[in-house]
Design goal:
Blueprint: E1 13-15, H1 19-43, H2 45-51, H3 54-67, H4 70-75, H5 79-88, H6 93-103, H7 119-143, H8 150-179, H9 182-190, E2 192-194, H10 195-201
Antiparallel strand pairs: 1-2
Length: 207
């Protein structure tokens, strides 16, 4: 005999991401990875000598960069994805509490309230989105040299190169934090996380 609905045991897992959201993340990560690896091969002499075929590396870099926004643009057709973008784009009082706890190095879960995304994830998402747009714009100026004056192209090259280095450092930090949180990686791999983890790390999230 089945127990009444109000006494039935809660499921141990909750859904965090849909298959489309996971596809967007994986595709974007793959394209970003191609951009980073090809950039390293273009700018680090030892890697350039090892790989060779500079023209092919340049072509891969250009087209991967041009395609980088495509997964997110395709995802806008999904209501769930748009809702998550809205969550990432909104800061609340609890996000300020979360940031203060990080600055104080207070690791207690109750000191770091968060919705589906914490303040650190929101800042990272906003920064990487802005950086991608800047990289796309400066990259196009470097690619289509006849469209802009020399001064613009020189400035674009400077911004593109230094921002690329910054992106590499930020991505390394992002990957390091992901490696330190197996349950978060599981959410991106399978779309589901444990209810215990969700209640501990994202106490304000109501899946």
């Amino acid at each position: 005999m089945n127990p009444p609905a109000d006494t039935a045991p809660a499921p141990t897992d909750v859904r965090r991401f849909t298959p489309l959201q996971r596809w967007i993340h994986r595709t974007t990560a793959a394209l970003m990875g191609v951009c980073v690896v090809t950039a390293a091969c273009l700018y680090v002499p030892q890697l350039a000598e090892l790989v060779g075929r500079r023209a092919l590396v340049v072509t891969l870099h250009q087209w991967a960069g041009l395609a980088l926004p495509v997964p997110v643009l395709a995802g806008l057709a999904s209501r769930v994805f748009r809702a998550d973008l809205g969550r990432l784009n909104r800061f609340g009082p609890h996000d300020r509490v979360w940031l203060r706890a990080v600055l104080r190095r207070d690791g207690r879960p109750e000191a770091r309230p968060a919705g589906k995304f914490n303040a650190g994830q929101k800042i990272y998402a906003s920064w990487i989105a802005g950086a991608t747009l800047v990289m796309l714009g400066t990259g196009l100026m470097m690619w289509f040299t006849h469209l802009t004056p020399l001064l613009w192209r020189t400035s674009a090259t400077f911004v593109h190169d230094w921002l690329a280095l910054t992106i590499g450092i930020v991505l390394a930090g992002h990957i390091g934090m992901a490696l330190a949180d197996p349950e978060s990686r599981r959410g991106l791999r399978t779309g589901r996380v444990s209810r215990h983890w969700a209640e501990r790390e994202h106490s304000l999230w109501r899946p």
